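Input (DNA repair protein RadA):
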Amino acid sequence: MATKSTSRQSPRFRCAECGWTTAKWVGRCGECQAWGTVAETAGGTAPRTVPAQVLRPATPIAEVDLTSAAARPTGVAEFDRVLGGGLVPGAVVLVAGEPGIGKSTLLLDVAARAARQGAQTLYVSGEESAAQVRARADRIDALADRLYLAAETDLATVLGHVEASSPQLLVVDSVQTIASADVEGQAGNVSQVREVAASLIRMAKDRGMSVLLVGHVTKDGSIAGPRVLEHLVDVVVQFEGDRHSRLRLVRAVKNRYGPTDEVGCFDLSETGIIGLPDPSGLFLSHRLTAVAGTCVTVTLEGRRPLVTEVQALVAPSTLPSPRRTSSGLDASRLAMVIAVLDKRAGAPVGAQDIFAATVGGVRVTEPAADLALVCALASSVLDRPLPVDAIAIGEVGLAGEVRRATGIGRRLTEAARLGFRHAVVPRGSRDDSPMPDGINVIEVSNVAEAIETMRRLAVAQPTPALARDTA
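Output:
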């Protein structure tokens, strides 16, 4: 008797991030280790896609019109610097940052300026009521006739507002608060964020409408939601800054229309957020006399040089394990610099409490600030002030050598513009770029030579009147 065989296709589960498949559901992808991205897919062979009729034939690349991709300034010069000149029609920009750092304030200001320039603008708030947004607009003077406001959390309703008002600029605050009724799960999960972003991007491309999306970040600072969100959008902008400081830095992590090495500086106050075209003065302390334990360096934020002051305090420790505290500086680089100073320069800092910080709330992470930290520590140990018109630039190695820094010409030009007259730099820096006029460039090979150079400059400098009176 012949038996009839039946084939049963078991369901398969696929990761939405990397495409990894498995026979049973798991909460975490076994390939990319992402959580909540594995979903069931239909079994069997996928239908083949047949060719469709071409409505718009391919165009020779030399005949493509460039006017549609021309950037339009937003009216906020520092934001335009980061974007590469402004907003491109059809571009989708994701603005991410920690809560309360100023994302909504900046984008509300951008929306109002665009509306005053004649662009139909729609601001969709999913986190605050319309009255709360109106109160913020009154405070920062962001009222405009062509700026429309809607407080919605449903994706279909948001798309309906876009259809009704036909805006040239759409601001959605935030993408994690909008949800689609056609997708399971609550707002903010992986599937919802992917669907909301894809729908808004599709409408932006079809209408030539610029879109600004506010994105949340996780505890480690990464953008919340699926990684594909960053791949779908055209520009990813990161907001940075200390909650206790008014300074805010905006940098482009991804930009299809411009460079990713530009940084915008803003001052966040009660009356709004204001661009700072020349922020170097914010990172210097204004004193009438020189103080031991301070040294000035020039950091590069993108392509922008910023003159920054590094402060250090070395004090006798009463604890079995001396304290090492840093603010605005990388703690691991501070520990390395302390070890190099103790071993290579013979400075007695190993058993002392050491505190190091930057001025103005700026965060310095590049290695070119190592030499300034070395000089500040040595100045505090010796209790001898360094020259107020001298800067130090260079990376310090474990052997005590001072290595070259990139963009030395731009750094020294900015220092000379602000009135600094002496610069201690790594040996060979003159070979990298021409040195600016008006500043005495001194090349050093190691930390001991750098400290001795700073000591000679301090001896040659006239003693301030207040220091003579208290001596």
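Residues 1-8, 463-471 have pLDDT under 50 and may be disordered.
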